[in-house]
Design goal:
single chain, Cyclic Phosphodiesterase, Chain: A, Cyclic_Pdiesterase, globular, alpha+beta, 9 strands
Length: 166
């Protein structure tokens, strides 16, 4: 599965590391952190998929993003529950997501109107732990998103980067 992801600053990874002791009881704890912007699907010709994504992103400006809270999906449409995440506020990222959904099929229940920008921390744990984490206050983390990554989900690696001009 290929996707377009938003790289996050080191302060986000630092916060995730600080929360790690409270996440160890979950089935899956993320070690790599980014914000999934749009799933692109599979491809026989990766270069064509990548070219379509780059074309859809042409002219997209740098945008502001802000992590404001810890939250959770109690009943996610895919995978084990609950999913604990860092909530990302960014009208600019939501606008770019809309542009990408115009160019690529939308995954029902996850994208389009259902899209919630977030950075997954862990999934498949105790709902009470998720609620306790969501009640915890955090210092907001703000940054400018000046680039996006074309991500190869099979190898869990970025394969290219798209700059967003200021």
């Amino acid at each position: 599965m290929y996707s377009v992801n938003v790289p996050v600053p080191g302060r986000v990874r630092t916060l995730a590391n600080e929360l790690y002791p409270e996440l160890v009881g979950f089935e899956h704890v993320r070690e790599e952190h980014s914000c999934l912007l749009k799933r692109l699907g599979e491809a026989d010709h990766v270069a064509q998929l990548q070219h379509r994504a780059h074309r859809a992103l042409e002219g997209a400006p740098a945008v502001e993003a802000r992590i404001t809270a810890i939250d959770y999906f109690e009943d996610p449409p895919l995978g084990s529950a609950p999913v604990v995440y860092l909530a990302v506020e960014s009208p600019g990222l939501e606008s770019i997501h809309d542009d990408l959904t115009a160019a690529f099929d939308t995954v029902e229940g996850l994208e389009g109107d259902d899209y919630v920008p977030h950075v997954t921390l862990a999934r498949g744990g105790d709902i009470e732990t998720a609620k306790r984490l969501a009640d915890r206050e955090i210092e907001p983390i703000e940054w400018t998103v000046s680039g996006l990554e074309f991500w190869d989900g099979t190898y869990k690696l970025p394969v290219s980067r798209v700059s967003l001009p200021a």
